[in-house]
Design goal:
Chain lengths: ~140, ~110
């Protein structure tokens, strides 16, 4: 029996779609990417960075980021009840496409052609990884 | 990059991987085994994650996110190996391929 074969709730009913582990993984990824952008915004170009980042707790952006991270963690833990860690974590690789795009949109960081290529590779990797999970779900 | 920075990066990623293993152990359904299932393991995961997180925040303040990124791609492969060793997960060939694509993409993003 494959590890990811624990039956997730059926996604047909829109009210129950929220309970689908893949929906929760997607939510977790978006929240986690938002958290990274918020943290970077809050920490910014600190003039006096310490090795451990406790000084950053003075920034409101950092607290928003921590809030997004906690919400992301709850979605993640829920999804882990149904999915293998290796599958869930690899799908969460989408965060490496979302974070640069988020930095481009919200922090005004430039994205070169090469970087877009890297983002495209990350998305391709997530799509390839999503296949086994999808196939297993269809068999249920 | 100093040796201290490198060790902090490895420590941060190691904590994150340990945290994920603890999370999965804590959350898995009873029919997959009960060893380590429940709140104490979840708490251990939160502690490991928090420790890794504060080191990461400190590193973010000192280095560019783009510099720290390639280490994330190395830790993706390390997590899959950890899932095989500690959780006995079977990894489909497509998943390995997917992780390699993601790691390559992350490294290109970081170096561009």
């Amino acid at each position: 029996m494959p590890i990811e074969s624990i039956a997730p709730p059926p996604p047909a009913d829109p009210r129950r779609r929220f309970a689908n582990p893949h929906v929760q993984i997607a939510l977790s990824i978006v929240l986690s990417a938002a958290a990274q952008v918020l943290l970077k915004r809050g920490i910014g170009d600190d003039a006096d960075p310490s090795v451990l980042g406790f000084h950053a707790l003075r920034s409101g952006w950092v607290w928003l980021g921590i809030g997004a991270m906690i919400a992301s963690l709850l979605s993640w833990l829920y999804a882990l009840r149904f999915l293998a860690l290796s599958v869930a974590f690899t799908l969460a690789g989408a965060i490496h496409a979302l974070v640069p795009v988020g930095c481009w949109m919200f922090l005004g960081e430039a994205i070169s052609i090469t970087r877009w290529l890297g983002i495209a590779l990350v998305i391709a990797g997530v799509v390839v990884s999503a296949q086994p999970a999808t196939v297993v779900e269809e068999k249920l | 990059m100093t040796l201290l920075a490198f060790l902090l990066i490895v420590l941060s990623e190691g904590c994150a991987i340990a945290g994920q293993i603890f999370f999965k152990l804590a959350m898995r359904p009873a029919e997959e085994g009960t060893r380590g299932r429940g709140w104490p393991t979840l708490l251990a995961g939160v502690v490991a994650m928090a420790f890794g997180f504060f080191i990461w925040v400190g590193l973010l303040g000192k280095y560019d996110l783009s510099f720290l990124y390639p280490f994330e791609s190395v830790s993706r492969l390390a997590l899959l190996i950890a899932a095989v060793v500690f959780l006995k997960e079977k990894i489909a060939l497509r998943l390995w391929l997917g992780v390699l694509l993601i790691s390559a993409g992350v490294t290109i993003v970081a170096l561009s």
